[in-house]
Amino acid sequence: MNEYIERYNWVERWTHTIHAIAMITLLFTGFAIYYRWNFITMHNARIIHMIAVPFLLVTNWILVPYGIISHGLSEGGLKGIKDHFLNSYIFSR
Predict the structure, then answer these.
(1) Element (H, E) at 40
(2) Please, which residues have CB within 8 angstroms of residue 21's CB and are 6 or more apart in sequence?
(3) Phi and psi of 36, rounded to 5°?
(4) CA distances (Å), 36 to each of 2, 29, 42, 52, in order?
(5) What is the rounded CA–CA span in Å between residue 51 and residue 46?
(6) pLDDT for 38-68, tens place per residue?
(7) Which of 10, 6, 12, 26 is closest to 89 using CA atoms?
(8) Which long-range contacts (CB under 8 A, 24 or more apart) does 2-6 make?
(9) Element at 30 (helix H, strand E)
(10) End-to-end distance of the chain based on CA atoms, in angstroms?
C-alpha cells in the first residue's frame, strides 16, 4: 500500500539545490554590482559572484548530463536516456 516512488535520484536533487543556491547568489551579487546596492561592498560582491559561477557551470555542464545519462541507463539504454530526457526535462506532466 505505501509504495515509495522515487521520481528524482539524489544527483538530480543535489543538482537542483546547488543550481538554486548559485542562481540566487548570482542574482543578488549581480544586482549589487550593477545597481551599486549598499548591503555589500563592490569588492565582496565580485568575489562572491566569481565563486558562484563555477558552481552554476558544473551544475549545468556536468551534473545535469550525468543525471540524464545515469537515470536513463537504469531505465533501458539509449532509449531510456532519450525517454528520461523527454519526460523529465521537456514534456513533463
Answers:
(1) none
(2) 55
(3) 55, 50
(4) 53, 10, 7, 19
(5) 9
(6) 889 999 999 999 999 999 999 989 988 887 7
(7) 12
(8) none
(9) helix 10-35
(10) 24
Amino acid at position 83, single letter: D
- CA dist 83 and 32 (Å) reads 41
Instruction: Give the cell for residue 33.
Output: 554590482
Q: What is the DSSP letter of 6?
A: -
The whole-angstrom separation of Cα 74 and Cα 80 is 7
Q: Say whether 43 sits in a helix, a strand or coil.
A: helix
User: Which pLDDT score is estimated for 93?
Assistant: 60
Contact 52, 36 (CB under 8 A): no
Which tens digit of pLDDT belongs to each residue from 14-37?
Answer: 999 999 999 999 999 999 999 988
Which pTM value belongs to this model? Answer: 0.73
Cell (9 digits) for 62: 556536468
